[in-house]
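Structure first, sequence second, as always.
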């Protein structure tokens, strides 16, 4: 799936987009709006963004799990080879301790993510703080062009902010959200 980002300047346009996309078969599960004041969204029956859209809990949880997995696997393997602890005597013990390490790493990562803004939304923070509405629409890859065309034809006042995969890759930065303008020096290369 792809996530399309649009910026709307007022609640009425956002409500019209919500109605129109629901007519096209986009469910509330695939349509979210992030606003500075989400109470206005509720009164207009617009599906507000979920906590994992606001905070970076998924990405930091995945990173924490990977670090916990790596560190606990390395430590238990070293203990097994050195024979320092007799209760770690088989690969089953290593897998058990590594699983616990990954879970603890994920919990630490999630806790860290609760204090951070979602890394994907950093480029939109200025607009959100200015009172604009960030619309996030999740569509199948084959429906992306149809939804973009609908938005371009019917809602010219909204600004397209880019698109990206809905899959969270912990170490990858998105290049499709708010692409930077290409300088003339880069174009010549």
């Amino acid at each position: 799936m792809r996530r399309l980002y649009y910026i709307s300047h007022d609640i009425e346009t956002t409500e019209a987009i919500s109605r129109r996309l629901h007519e096209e078969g986009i469910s509330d599960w695939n349509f979210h709006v992030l606003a500075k004041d989400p109470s206005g969204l509720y009164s207009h029956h617009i599906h507000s963004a979920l906590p994992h859209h606001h905070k970076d809990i998924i990405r930091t949880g995945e990173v924490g799990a990977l670090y916990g997995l790596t560190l606990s696997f390395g430590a238990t393997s070293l203990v097994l080879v050195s024979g320092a602890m007799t209760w770690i005597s088989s690969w089953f013990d290593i897998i058990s301790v590594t699983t616990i390490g990954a879970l603890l790493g994920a919990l630490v990562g999630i806790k860290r993510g609760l204090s951070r803004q979602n890394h994907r939304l950093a480029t939109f923070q200025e607009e959100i703080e200015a009172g604009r509405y960030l619309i996030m629409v999740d569509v199948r890859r084959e429906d992306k062009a149809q939804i973009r065309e609908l938005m371009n034809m019917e809602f010219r006042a909204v600004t397209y902010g880019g698109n990206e995969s809905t899959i969270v890759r912990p170490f990858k930065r998105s290049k499709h959200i708010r692409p930077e303008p290409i300088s003339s020096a880069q174009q010549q290369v």
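Margin note: The two ends are 32 Å apart (CA to CA).
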